[in-house]
Amino acid sequence: MSVSSDAGQGPSAPPASEPPTTDRAPTADVSPKSGLHPPIVSRFTTTIPDEGSALVRAAYADNRLRVQGQADDFRFRQSRRDLGSLRIDSFHNSLVTEYDVEPLGCLVVCRVLDRHMDIWTDGRHRRVGPGDVVLLAHPEKAYSTRLEGAGLEIVGVDLDLLAEVTDEPVRDVVDRFHLETFEPLMAWHWKRTLHHLTDVVLSDDRLSENPVVLGTSARLVAATLITALDPAGVTPTPTDRTDATNTTVQRAVAYVEEHCDADITVTDIARAAHVSVRALQLAFRRHLDTTPTGYLRRVRLDRAHDDLLAADPASGTSVTDIAMSWGFLNVGRFSAQYRSVHGVPPRWTLHH
């Protein structure tokens, strides 16, 4: 790694950096399949370009940093929520900075918060601005960026996590990913999905350490990424239509009933039914007029109903406790869904 600056730093830059800080370490792997764990939160700030480059190297890949302007005015700030196979960074720097980054081996999606960023991948130039969401590069491709003092939200997604939401070889899926800026609607969905994960799930220790909640939320990010970058991949094939039988539904239902308390995915259900995810989704629509995740939610609502009936309110058990144990992180939404199915609010069931 080398670091250079268009303006001299002077013989002795002041030690104005703050060492990385970590808020919490993981207590256990909550989803071994995808390598997820409870969030590790870290923060780092510096005014020294060498340290900023070292941080980028440690967080992403080997890189070369160039700073344009007075290096004394350089400011770098990064915070990270590391979930293992999913990482969410907030990144801010001053001045005009350029990075040459080696292949990352994972997917990195960037949302520009302010200013502009230029990206070069395979000789192709892209310029993105506030609100834009873009895939920086394919996992095996190097890229370069030029930031005009920009603020960024950067999300790293490992291929193992992506593999949990597709039944195709993950490399085949990724090879179809385009490098265009997300369409406005998909950019909105991406922002909303990240907001749900960061501001709802990761802000509550009970949720972020619940394997069902964390696994489901992380896979929603991966599924949103596939939908945005490979829309043609969700179209059923003739084989999918042939496989969308009642037998497929029966196999899937049996698997869901047996494993509804585990962190199972749509891909798990499809494999148990011996069909593709697209065939599974089509079969549930055709024969049950719902989706596999909708059916899983209904089964978990029924199990929560059983737990509410069996619980003793005098022991301190609450509706929230039972809802979260079955992966329902929004208690208000759980109550509405429960009432639509069972005709009474969950609190009534618990106390009667």
UniProtKB/TrEMBL annotation:
- Whether Nucleotide-binding counts among this entry's keywords is no
Please indicate if the UniProt record lists Transcription as a keyword: yes
Q: Which residues form a coiled coil?
A: none
* Protein known as: AraC-like DNA-binding protein
GO MF entries: DNA-binding transcription factor activity; sequence-specific DNA binding
Q: What sequence ranges are listed for the domain HTH araC/xylS-type?
A: 250-352
Tell me the keywords, alphabetical order. Answer: DNA-binding, Transcription, Transcription regulation
Q: Where is this region: Disordered?
A: 1-40
Provide the species name.
Knoellia remsis
Q: Which InterPro entries match?
A: AraC_XylS_family_regulators, Homeodomain-like_sf, HTH_AraC
From which residue to which does the signal peptide run? none
